[in-house]
Every structure is written in structure tokens, then in C-alpha cells.
């Protein structure tokens, strides 16, 4: 697959604060990780990957069997999110993608409308990212091919956020705060399960 948009969902984390695999728990009638995947699928991109660790989440295996995604295995997932981002960037570069949209598997409320805005707003030299209530930018983000090499050298847990926050040309997208909620703990899961 070459050209166009590559979407990569980060799903390789150990979920230590959740105390067990979280992307396969039921949330709003489907596996938690499936929510992010379904929002991504609405964009119609032909190049969709899920970055997984060991063990691989079942929602990702199911999506691969359905022919919806390819899986990228991060053998060093315990070293932090940046390794998964670098893996996705390497894949996007190899597939000659023009844009790379990065998402997290544990953010079930991000809408396809927000993802489309990020893709439409990013341009060469100017990536786009959502702006969090604290003012910092973070995932989901969309970067163009001229940033892929930089992503390959990322280190640590924060992934692309530290890279983007030091970049004044990053275009910031404001979205409802609820969209930016992620499920890190079982308390989060219970809280958001009963919140309309």
C-alpha cells in the first residue's frame, strides 16, 4: 500500500494502572479498543495498522482476521510509547504514506469528525494535534511525511507529545474535553460506563 493516509492505533501498552489487559474489556457494548478502531475505519483509509505488544489484544486479532487492519508487533513495548510511535512512523515511511494519524486504543470517545479535522489541517512542516485543557498538545495527532524521520528517534514514554509541544508550527485543534478522556484504571472504566 503506498501514498495517502496511514492510521496507526497504539495498543501495545502493559496497562499496569489497570492491573490487567484493558483493551479487551467490555465498554459500551463492545471491546474498549474497538471504539478507537471504529472511529478510524470511518475515515476509509486503506492503510490501517494497530501496534501491539505481547500479548496481542484480542480486539486487534479479530480486526486482523476480518481483514480490516495489519498488526505491527513492538518487541520492546515495555520501553514506552515512543517505540510504538517510531514503529508506526517506520511503517508509514516504508509504505510511502503522505500522512500518519496516530491514535490511542484506550480513548473511546474520539470521533471520526475530529480525526478528519486533524488530517485536513496537517500539512508539510505543520502537523496537527488536539489541544488538551492544560494547553498542551497530544494524541491523536496527524503528521506529514517530512516528520517521519524525527519520530524514528523518539525515546521514552511520552511518544509524540514532547516532540509536538516544542514545535510552534503545530496546528492545535480544540475538541470537547470528553473526547480526550482515556481509560487508564478500572475506576475510569466504571465512571465512564455510567456517564451519559
Overview of the molecule:
The protein is an alpha/beta fold and 196 residues long. It is built from seven helices and nine strands. The strands form two sheets. The chain has a seven-stranded mixed beta sheet, with helices on both faces. Strands 2-3 form a two-stranded antiparallel ribbon. It is globular, with a radius of gyration of 15 Å. It starts with a strand and ends with a helix. The relative contact order is 0.19.
SSE topology sketch:
Layout (H helix, E strand, L loop, with lengths): L4 E7 L14 E2 L2 E2 H10 L5 E6 L5 H8 L4 E4 L7 H14 L4 E6 L7 H10 L6 E4 L5 E8 L3 H5 L8 H5 L5 E4 L11 H9 L2
Parallel strand pairs: 1-4, 1-6, 4-5, 7-9
Antiparallel strand pairs: 2-3, 6-8, 7-8
Descriptive key words:
globular, 31% helix, single chain, 196 residues
Brief rundown of the structure:
This protein has 196 residues and is of the alpha/beta class.
